[in-house]
Design brief:
The chain is an alpha/beta fold and about 550 residues long. The protein has 17 helices and 23 strands. Keywords: Hydrolase. GO terms for molecular function: hydrolase activity; RNA endonuclease activity.
Length: about 550
């Protein structure tokens, strides 16, 4: 059998693994690359295989970096089955159309600019129609249900504890009369996370493919995150302020709602404070996702199940209100009482959260509470870094609100959790492939794995192919590499963006719209850029 690492290799996003077994081709995951412009361009590359030859896809969970290119796979000719859990199937039914809407909106914006410049119009990565059509090919599978593809291939899903419906994939393969077992950890969750069950401990395997998002770090202050959340909320409300929580629509929003509902169910002083204010969820995607959680209470852990048994649905505290229409959201912008507002996007780059920040950052009584990672160059990161003024919708907003961050919220196991999960296997893997992580983190994690388990550890690169058999693993020919044409495309796209920004800069200087202080800071960066360009063109 051969496996090729299409994505999620020496990177966190774009998870996609191609298997070839006795003429049969299938994928585990088919995710979108996320990050900067270079990563975005990877999504537009042709697949390094013929999508029409892929018989089926095994999907570990609904997050877009694992599922987001499935509509493109369909657009390019795939007509097979996508096997996934029932909950993942339902979450994809809202997340893939939402992703398609984003693709179409972004291209529409770019095409308006290109039309003015007389440039050729672009096509979206995929359309809403592509997303809706491929959803018809999804098939729901229960945890523990064995799916027999043919006499030589079967698989089983186990709970990964990462998000609702997330799965560890156990692959059983027969070759030359011998059976061996591969395990994909998928995105492995933490223990003792609200709502979700702990990651399932696997008996063992021959070959393990393990994620490494946090393979070099430990989560901090996990035990106190619930107390810190409630303390921040109660302190702000007691001071007459609002709590604004930028949150990922699927997973994190439901976790925050659960924590609040859990506190409200008690007789504590904090519960009395929170009961007296309204809680608003202002995100259409989060509203739909919360309804899907309600449909799949059989996935909940024992604590959440006990709430339900006692007649309390733990994702809908009594003072919760879902904001649905744009008009309601505008009304909420003018709401002048203490309240809790949970809205997306989690990094404040898009969505309704930007309106709530614009209307509430100026007030020193308010608190903006971050419960997720904030990537560099995002509005969320600028607020976390302590900027006193930020631009929102072209308007400068003074930051007087308190900015808080609870770092302990994470959907991924840390280094200790990953090691513990492997240690509990009764049969340790012969070889380990480290996937789904940044290269430097993976190399560090791989070294520790090798020392701790005395086994061979491989950190595959994108495009690398390996031949796997019951007795051995061997590198095979590389299916593809980072082609010069792709690098050229990336650089040309960057130049196009820079040209647009330079035109805006010229206009700003002509109109005296840019302060001397900003121009002074920009000048040194322009000098450095000119120097780098001269180096690059030295041999031209």
């Amino acid at each position: 059998m051969k496996i090729t690492f299409i994505g999620g290799a020496q990177s966190v996003t774009g998870s996609c693994y191609l298997f070839e077994l006795e003429g049969k081709k299938f994928l585990v995951d088919c995710g979108m690359f996320q990050g900067g412009l270079t990563e975005e361009l990877l999504n537009y590359e042709s697949f390094p295989f013929n999508p029409s030859e892929i018989e089926f896809v095994i999907l570990s969970h609904a997050h877009i970096d694992h599922s987001g290119r499935i509509p493109k796979l369909y657009k390019d000719g795939f007509r097979g089955v996508i096997y996934t859990t029932d909950a993942t199937m339902d979450l994809c039914s809202i997340m893939l159309p939402d992703s398609a809407h984003i693709q179409e909106s972004e291209i529409e914006w770019k095409n308006r600019k290109r039309k003015r410049e007389g440039k050729e119009q672009l096509l979206p990565l995929y359309t809403l129609e592509d997303a809706e059509n491929v959803l018809k090919h999804f098939r729901g599978v229960k945890y523990g249900q064995k799916i027999q593809i043919d006499k030589n291939l079967s698989f089983v899903f186990k709970d990964a504890g990462h998000m609702l419906g997330s799965a560890i994939v156990e692959l059983y393969i027969k070759e030359n009369g011998k059976e061996y077992k591969l395990v994909f950890s998928g995105d492995l969750g933490n223990r003792n996370v609200p709502i979700l069950k702990d990651p399932t401990i696997i008996d063992g395997c021959d070959y393990l493919f393990i994620e490494s998002t946090y393979g070099n770090r430990l989560h901090v202050d996990v035990e106190n995150k619930f107390k810190k959340l409630i303390d921040i909320i109660c302190t702000t409300i007691s001071n007459g302020g609002k709590v604004i929580i930028p949150s990922f629509a699927v997973g994190r929003t439901q976790e925050i709602l659960y924590e609040i509902a859990k506190e409200i169910s008690t007789d504590s002083e904090e519960a009395k404070i929170i009961r007296n204010v309204e809680i608003f969820v202002d995100s259409p995607l989060a509203t739909s996702a919360t309804a899907i959680y309600k449909k799949h209470i059989d996935y909940f852990d024992s604590e959440a199940a006990m709430f339900i048994k006692n007649g309390i649905y733990p994702l809908e505290p009594p003072n919760l209100r879902f904001i649905k229409s744009v008009d309601e959201s505008k009304w909420l912008n003018e709401y002048d009482k203490s309240c809790i507002i949970i809205s997306s996007s989690g990094m404040c780059e898009a969505g309704r959260i930007k309106h709530h920040l614009k209307h509430n950052l100026w007030n020193e009584k308010n608190t903006v509470l971050f419960v997720g990672y904030q990537a560099p160059n995002t509005l969320g990161r600028r607020l976390l870094d302590g900027q006193k003024k930020v631009k929102i919708f072209g308007e400068e907003v003074e930051v007087r609100a308190k900015i808080e961050y609870i770092e302990a919220y994470s959907g991924h196991a840390d280094k200790s959790g990953l090691f513990s999960w492997i240690e509990q296997m009764s049969e340790k893997p012969k070889k380990i492939f480290v996937v789904h992580g940044e290269k430097e983190i993976q190399l560090e994690f791989a070294k520790e794995l090798q020392n701790r388990f005395n086994t061979d550890v491989i950190v595959p690169a994108r495009g690398e192919m390996y031949e796997i058999a019951p007795e051995y693993v061997a590198p095979s020919e590389r299916l593809f590499s980072e082609l010069p044409s792709f690098i050229n495309l990336s650089v040309l796209a960057q130049i196009e963006e820079i040209e647009y920004e330079l035109d805006r800069l010229k206009e700003g200087i002509k109109n005296s719209a840019i302060s001397p202080e900003r121009l002074f800071a920009l000048n040194s960066n322009l000098e450095e850029l000119r120097y780098l360009l001269s180096l690059a063109l030295n041999d031209y």
